[in-house]
C-alpha cells in the first residue's frame, strides 16, 4: 500500500501548523520585523507631514516603501533560487538593520532619508521571496494554506498594533526612536532565523548557475505565458487600488483633527479587517470553496471604499476600510493556487515577481493618490480608488470563472490510490 496522504479537501488546523518548530521560528522572526516596520512607517509619515505639511511628500515617503521593486525587485528575487534561502534572509535582515539605524540619526536630510528608505525596501524583495519560497518546504498541503493564513494574520495584526502603538509613541516620544526599535527587530529576526531554521541547499544547487537577469527573464516567461498564473498574479496586483487609503492616512486624518493618534487608527483599520477576514476564511471555508469565492471577495476588497466619497465620520470610515480589508483575504486562495502551479526550483523568482509587482503597483497607486489628494482631497481619491478597483476586480472575476475549473481539478483531485480502490 502507498504512503498515507491527507485527502485534498481535509483542512489542517492551527495546532498542527504551530507544532512544526521551523515554522514557529520563521513566524516569530516575521512578527518582530513586521511590528518594527509598522512602527517605523507611522514615525516616517508623521515626521515628514509635520516637517513639510505636504500630502504629496508624505505619500512620496510612504510610496518609497513600495516603489523600489520596480527598479530591482524582480532581479534580486532570483537570489532566493540561486543561493540558500536562509542565507539570503539573514543577510537582508542584517543589512536592513544598519540602514534603518542610519535613518534614526538626528538631522538626516529629507532626500537622504528617502534614499535609505529606498535601499531598505529594495532589500526586502529577496528576503520576502526567500521566505515565501521556503515556507512550502516546511509546510505541505493545507498546512501550507493555514501557515500562509497565520503569516497573513500576523502581518496584518502587526500592522494594526504597530500603527496604533506608533501613533501613540509619536505623541509621547521622538519618532526617530521608533526607527531605532525597528533596527533592533531586524537584528533579532536574523538571530532567530540562524537558530531556528535549518540550512538547505539552493533550489538550483548543482550545475551552472544562471545569471540573475536570465533567472528574472525565465520567471517572467513562466508566469505570464501561463493563463492560470497570469490570472492569479493579476488578482494579487489588484491590491494596488485598495492600499491607497493607507498611503493617505495622514492627510485623511487631518480632516478630523490634528491628533497623530488618528493616523494610527486609520492605518490600522484595513489590517484589522484583514485579520478577521483571513481567520474566518481559513478556518471556516473549505479549500475548494476558497478558490470559488476569490472573485466576489476581490470585489468586496474595493467596493466599500466608494462610500468615502460621501465624507462620513471617522468611525464610519474606519468601518468601511475594515470591510475592504476583510475582502482582501481572497489573497490566501490566490497564494495557495500559485504555489501549486509553480515548480519548486522557480518558486523564489515567481514569488519575487508577484511580490515586486504588488509593491510596485501599491507604490504607484499611493503616489498617484497623493498627487490627486492635493487637488481634490483624500476622501474623493479613496472613493475613486474603490470604484476603479471594483471595475478591475469585476473583469478579473469574469476571466477567473473560465480557468478556475482546471485549478480545482489540479489542486483537489483525489490521490491515484483512492481512485483505484473506489473502482474496485
From TrEMBL:
Keywords: Cell membrane, Membrane, Transmembrane, Transmembrane helix
Keyword Transmembrane helix: yes
Family matches, as Gene3D superfamilies: MFS general substrate transporter like domains (1.20.1250.20)
UniProt KW Transmembrane helix keyword: yes
Compartment(s) where it occurs, according to its Swiss-Prot or TrEMBL record: Cell membrane
UniProt-listed InterPro entries: MFS, MFS_dom, MFS_trans_sf
Transmembrane segments: 94-119, 179-197, 232-254, 260-282, 294-314, 356-376, 382-401
Membrane topology qualifier: Multi-pass membrane protein
Protein name, UniProt field: MFS transporter
Biological source species: Actinocorallia longicatena
